[in-house]
Amino acid sequence: MGGIKEIAKMTGVSLATVSRVFNNSALVSPKTREKVLKAAKDIDYRPNVMAAALRSGKSKIIGVIVPEVNNSFFSDIINGIEGVVSDSGFNIIISQTHEKQERENAALNSLLELNVDGILMSISKETKDYTQIQKIIDSKTPIVFFDRRPTLDAINAVLLNNYLGAYIATEHLIDMDCENILHIAGNPDVSIFEERKKGFVAAAQKHRVQYLVNHLPNIKSNPEEDLNSLKDILKKHPNIDGIFAYGDEMAIHLLNLLNTLKIEVPKQVKLIGFGNANFSALTQPSLSSIDQESSLMGELSANLLLQNLKRKTKPTAKVLSPKLIRRESTKNLDQ
Amino acid sequence: MGGIKEIAKMTGVSLATVSRVFNNSALVSPKTREKVLKAAKDIDYRPNVMAAALRSGKSKIIGVIVPEVNNSFFSDIINGIEGVVSDSGFNIIISQTHEKQERENAALNSLLELNVDGILMSISKETKDYTQIQKIIDSKTPIVFFDRRPTLDAINAVLLNNYLGAYIATEHLIDMDCENILHIAGNPDVSIFEERKKGFVAAAQKHRVQYLVNHLPNIKSNPEEDLNSLKDILKKHPNIDGIFAYGDEMAIHLLNLLNTLKIEVPKQVKLIGFGNANFSALTQPSLSSIDQESSLMGELSANLLLQNLKRKTKPTAKVLSPKLIRRESTKNLDQ
DNA sequence: AATAAAAATGTAAACGTTTACATTTTTATT
DNA sequence: AATAAAAATGTAAACGTTTACATTTTTATT
């Protein structure tokens, strides 16, 4: 037998009352509560979450969809989510999209079959078709986006002000006396990278410095090629004295490329990344960057979702302000 | 209404038959199968996994317990697990222990309440009491350990040969002409770190070189202090020419400390880490290390678990062989 | 065409909870 | 002490599937 039924039989009390005890209903006398709890301990009772979920319609599971789990940024976010969500007695199911729309849709579908109470997700770089997502928004399943959102109205989201982050990074280079700055930009299909580019351009124009935007798309597949492109750029624009890279990993590659070219950082060129990855403090020189408070972003998203689970609130988008992290790669040795 | 019942009504077929269609039972004629599938599509039917789980006792969920998700090694493992497990139609629930036994037990309990089909876990550094784990092993829930195992007999595990990894790393230093080597060891309560230490000692003794073992426990809380200890060690043993650190993060810190002390790597001292973290190729000089094939470890663990789900197999422990990754930090400039 | 075997389908109970509603017991009020 | 109100408990159905067993239909065999 096992389960609530056995406890009911043991204590001579009804199923309903036993259930009430485990759901902390106020409507049960201390005496019977104690009796039930004792019996539960005796048989090492473990409630069956699935059964409760089926009957109540609440699974106490939250689905999390990220592009990749083994990525410093997203794993920090998952850490933040896990913290608040598990404190509230929820479990998290994690799916990866590997930046593929097809996998994303499959993951969403799978989460719905599991009757998750809510969904936290960051859309893949590839995602253009929002019909599946729109269907979820239209349904009752609460969903909160973090970092990357679909371009749809009336959604819950926790985002980073990427424009501002890039603006701050660029201003920092200018503060450090850079007068001719280069931006290595990310995939223009991804909106957060486009915003960073815009922030860069805006700050450069505001302060009337020379600027340039470029891509180095082959850094992983063919670093040799990028080394040559970079060499060309620097040859064409020999007075470049500051570089803002769209991400920290790219920045570290740049650091190594510059080293290979015998260009000293920060003496000849100052360099700043974006993301404040875990390794950025460890390089030589250490890398200045823009912190995006990934763990906090996870926490806030989770809180927004939990709030939505209690009562359907108006869709809200929270925008976090990135912070400048000054390290050696942008140090002004003359100041 | 919704669900299987509605489809049954629409198609004029019984509940059982509809169920058979979705479970790919061979015992259903192509004609009715088609009819049912059509109806399912028409009402956008989504099976309720919870209900199926309750009735069948199979949740199609696998629990994963790791010390921290935002850790390069464990997130790689999760990536590996997710790949094989989701290909087989399972979902994963992830819990963090933050290296606390208490949280570990809570996570295990929570997974049992969810009726997970199996568990994949790496025990926390703190865990000494295995009663909860033993209870699970005794029950029917299959469990596989990865990387860190409890010292219990007859368990399923996928492990790294840490002794061998350390042995290889040490031999590599000796190959590169180091004659006086230092090991910066990890927390002696953690068995994998102890094995690394033993491997180091064994290789050093085998090749009859001078060696030394030390801890630098404050590197995160108080790097100044460790800088001084390191200075002391090197002063006392001025002919140290090779260092094997128990982990890559520690190794990178050492790299920076050595740089501060104006000791050139690899010219004066050669340095090798352990783990081949994602950032180890990015440092200057790049860090030699021991690769532990984290993603593969995840895949193998998941496969072992899936195998156990099909039919209870004899407990097996698979031991992976680590690989040497040669980079600049151990380059012999004379060779 | 009759019969046996195989394939397809159906019936109904069960998985372990929650919960609306009903009933009983206790407490407060006069 | 009688009555009303509040607190505690109980009854029974339901959540949406799966599955053992029974029955019907189809196919193969003579």
Automatic annotation (TrEMBL), chains A, B:
Question: Has UniProt tagged this entry with the keyword NADP?
Answer: no
Q: Which InterPro entries match?
A: HTH_LacI, LacI/GalR-like_sensor, Lambda_DNA-bd_dom_sf, Peripla_BP_I
Please list the residue ranges annotated as the HTH lacI-type domain.
4-56
Query: What would be one Pfam family of this protein?
Result: LacI
Write out the GO MF terms.
Answer: DNA-binding transcription factor activity; transcription cis-regulatory region binding
What organism does the UniProt record list as the source? Flagellimonas meridianipacifica
Q: Which UniProt keywords apply?
A: DNA-binding, Transcription, Transcription regulation
> Which CDD domains does the record associate with it?
HTH_LacI, PBP1_LacI_sugar_binding-like
Q: What is this protein called?
A: LacI family transcriptional regulator
SMART domains attached here? HTH_LACI
Q: Which domain of life is it from?
A: Bacteria
